[in-house]
Design brief:
The protein is an alpha/beta fold and 609 residues long. It has 17 helices and 17 strands. 46% of the residues are buried. Helix 6 packs antiparallel against helix 7.
Length: 609
């Protein structure tokens, strides 16, 4: 009898542990940068080797219609962390530039935004972000760190606060000479010429302007020109650095074994937190340019340096024959696999126009889908979406329903038993009912696709709803025909031709307004279920419900627009521009900002000048 009671009590204890474990799963979120959906074997690629990422698909669920909330890094990542369209947080630009370019800008993810890392930290999770942040750093001083990852719920940060620029790697060309030169340098040059002309006119007596005022204008213009020349001349040292928490540990950034260093940090974080729930966001620099690959991967793929970078990232996900100790393997080592929710994605589609300074293709592959990064064609926003959780979700399943990177927020918040905020609109939906097969249809009847702050396109997947006794004028969006169609309308499209290999390359990315776009009235309409390549727009002649569909979508747009509220523009010119007083340097600002520390924080090398 005593033995029976002992066994029963042991079983109860085991069940208690299992229940506690299931309610507090570990979370690992792996995010690639600019990876095309067609770059992975599990999405049809047959020339790049991605066996470890493919194994995630075999052991979990593959989303075939997983959508980034924006086709650009900064707004997409803001939506991912908050579960909200970036327009709601001010992280969608009304200006031409849609991402943060400088570490010493004052814009960033507002402190009042709730990230999943904040909510999981409140539930006792250890939290870490390793890799790329790209959501701002400081507000008013060089050490207030108001937008820094540690101010948004992460206990530990190792990585880049901005992004991986071609300008950061010698010999890889420059983003700024193409994109920023026309926006910044040329206007300064024009202003200088105008002021000099005014001075000449005033000197010969044709214009009566106080000479002192004119002198101040000339002086301020000269200072501005000198500041910008200084910044761009020292760009690599000022803007390309690696941080641990609030400290710069390498300036300028070295690409030598960088992915291995990021992976080592991730593995060590897991090893430090085997006895408590943890959240790890491993945000790869691959495959954003500048491309790089370590010695073990360089020259090994069939697609040049881009392919090498993809295959090195795959190595980081799990072990292969080259190196050991990667992220998923360490879960096996500590018996954590069955209690860990793992998600893999990309922040947007491949940057298809990217060409190196030597002419090598450095952009990825979006499969059959049109367009790429910075565009709301499917190639820019349809991204890999893989989820693995052994014993909880079915292995080898496919879900062909519209889902979003915003869905991760409510999904992991619910898994951690944290409280979803009730004081703001959350646009994502919990994925677990879909993942576990409890429902077959996504809650995303509509998804709104923004190009910067401008509503560019809308996706509508009609729900199978009861259509009795509805009012056509007011309830059309609540009741419609059944079917597999996924309708997508474009209010404007970028001036981009997939047949043109240059695409929007002259400006580095496609822009969202003015002469860079073509507006459509009526909007372009596609049925993605029949035309996923977005080749042939439908017309009233080819689709009998053409105007009814547009009416439904317009009602949805009106409802969505009413839910928006004015917020500070974090990507205004004032917030985007480089501010010298916000510049971080591990040495003197005027001594080239140079330092290199090892992983323990001891100084290896400091070289001035």
């Amino acid at each position: 009898m005593r033995l029976l009671l002992f066994l029963v009590s042991c079983q109860c204890a085991i069940n208690s542990v299992k229940t506690h474990s299931a309610s507090n799963p570990n979370v690992i979120l792996l995010m690639a940068d600019d990876l095309g959906i067609g770059d992975l074997g599990c999405y049809g690629n047959r020339t790049l080797r991605t066996p470890n990422i493919d194994r995630l698909a075999e052991q979990g669920v593959t989303f075939t219609q997983h959508i980034a909330a924006s086709p650009l890094c900064t707004p997409s990542r803001a939506a991912f962390l908050t579960g909200r369209y970036p327009i709601r947080s001010g992280m969608a630009a009304f200006s031409r530039v849609g991402v943060f370019l400088f570490s010493a800008s004052s814009g960033g993810l507002p402190s009042e935004e709730l990230t999943f890392s904040k909510l999981l930290k409140q539930r006792g999770y250890a939290t870490a972000l390793i890799g790329k942040w790209h959501l701002g750093m400081n507000c008013e001083s060089s050490n207030d760190f108001c937008h820094h990852p540690l101010s948004h719920g992460f206990d530990y940060f190792y990585g880049l606060t901005v992004t991986n620029f071609r300008d950061c790697k010698p010999g890889q060309g420059s983003v700024f000479l193409k994109g920023v030169q026309k926006s910044v340098v040329v206007p300064i040059q024009i202003a200088g010429i105008m002021l000099v002309s005014l001075a000449v006119v005033q000197y010969i007596g044709l214009l009566k302007v106080p000479f002192q005022a004119l002198g101040y204008c000339l002086l301020m213009t000269a200072i501005l020109v000198v500041v910008f020349i200084f910044f761009f001349y020292h760009f690599r040292h000022l803007n390309c650095f690696l941080m641990r928490d609030h400290q710069i540990i390498q300036q300028p950034l070295s690409y030598e074994n960088l992915t291995q260093r990021l992976t080592k940090e991730a593995v060590q974080f897991i090893g430090r937190n085997t006895d408590a729930p943890f959240l790890l966001v491993l945000s790869y620099l691959h495959v954003h340019t500048a491309l790089y690959a370590s010695k073990n991967f360089r020259g090994k793929s069939k697609h040049g340096l881009y392919g090498d970078a993809v295959e090195e990232m795959d190595w980081s996900v799990e072990k292969n024959h080259v190196l050991r100790g990667q992220v998923l393997e360490v879960l096996e080592k500590y018996n954590l696999s069955d209690n860990t929710f793992v998600y893999f994605t990309s922040d947007q589609g491949a940057h298809v126009e990217e060409i190196s300074s030597s002419g090598e293709v450095h952009g990825g592959y979006n499969g059959i889908y049109k367009g790429g990064k910075s565009m709301n064609w499917e190639g820019g926003i349809r991204v890999p979406g893989l989820v693995r959780w052994p014993g909880v979700i079915q292995a080898g399943a496919y879900i062909d329903e519209p889902t979003s990177n915003m869905d991760i927020f409510p999904t992991i918040v619910e898994l951690a038993k944290a409280q979803l905020p009730s004081d703001r609109m959350i646009d994502g939906h919990d994925l677990m009912p879909l993942l576990q097969g409890k429902v077959t249809q996504s809650k995303h009847e509509f998804l709104f696709h923004y190009c910067n702050a401008y509503l560019n396109a809308v996706r509508w997947h009609p729900g199978n709803k009861n259509c009795k006794d509805f009012n056509y004028q007011t309830d059309l969006s609540k009741c419609y025909w059944k079917g597999e169609s996924v309708w997508k309308v474009f209010f404007f499209t970028p001036n981009f031709s997939p047949e043109d290999s240059n695409g929007c390359y002259d400006s580095h990315v496609c822009f969202c307004h003015g002469a860079f776009i073509t507006r459509h009235d009526p909007p372009l309409l596609f049925d993605l279920s029949r035309d996923p390549e977005e080749k042939v727009p439908l017309t009233p002649e080819t689709e009998s419900r053409f105007y009814e569909i547009l009416r439904v979508i317009q009602l949805a747009v009106d409802n969505h627009t009413r839910s928006l509220h004015a917020v500070p523009d974090q990507l205004s010119w004032g917030n985007l521009l480089w501010k010298p007083w916000l510049q971080l340097c591990c040495s003197s600002l005027f001594q080239s900002c140079y330092c290199d520390y090892d992983s323990e924080g001891s100084l290896l090398e400091v070289r001035m000048g």
